[in-house]
Amino acid sequence: MTQSTNEIQQAAALISRARYVVALAGAGLSAGSGIPTYRGAGGLWTQRGTPPLLSYQEFALDPAAWWRKRLAAEVDPSHPVYQMKQAVDRAAPNAGHLALAELERRGILRCVITQNVDNLQTAAGSRAVLEIHGNRNRLRCLQCGLRFHRGDFEAQLSAHPELAEGAGLANRPPLCGECGGVLKLDTVMFGEPIPPDTLQACREAAERCDCMLLVGTSGTVNPAARMPLVAQERGATLIEVNPEPTSLTPWCDVVLTGPADDILPRLLNRL
After folding, report:
1. Which of 97, 133, 149, 160 is catalytic?
2. pTM of the prediction?
């Protein structure tokens, strides 16, 4: 389905009248960069099934064992973790990411709440990015909350090959250099609470905005899925950009049907 010019104009008019525009981005935004979505036709979970819903509990039970399994998966070409890592490593921001970054540069878009962990929105040039599900390029200490660039840990693995082979993680997981707490990937697992600082910032953005762009999100994963409804309850208008209807479609003021890397540049051109 091709999006009509009239609907693009309606969306542009809503954005132009707004004082505080926020975007909520999901996996559909990065699909144009070659990163598989999770749900829907061709989605990673559609094909392979949803991951265990207690993955965080598995990590908490034995962090060292989890790290050994993870490091092994990342170098196993047959493993879905390896395949996803390769896709994200090769990915670059697409026209949708760049359009959002340009909207921020023009002072129209105040921030992007992204459910994606691929770092592509920041790579596109956006500065106000709230990563509600974390960032794949970082590690996070479960004790003090400090975040570290994952490259620092990978450099440690290169210097000590026995860690990459699992032997060095036999008795303990990677530990925080500041407080000695356990390090995990910054990405939020199923069953893991959203880091409080990030969740609070996202809620404040949703409560403050008077127009929210819903870009490539299925609207099925909380608490992110609640953000548009929180915004609407406070009077915000909702504009959806998605190739197919979602659970949030009935609540939206304007629905722009199509991929984000096509729709967002067209919308930008109307502003």
Report:
1. 133
2. 0.88
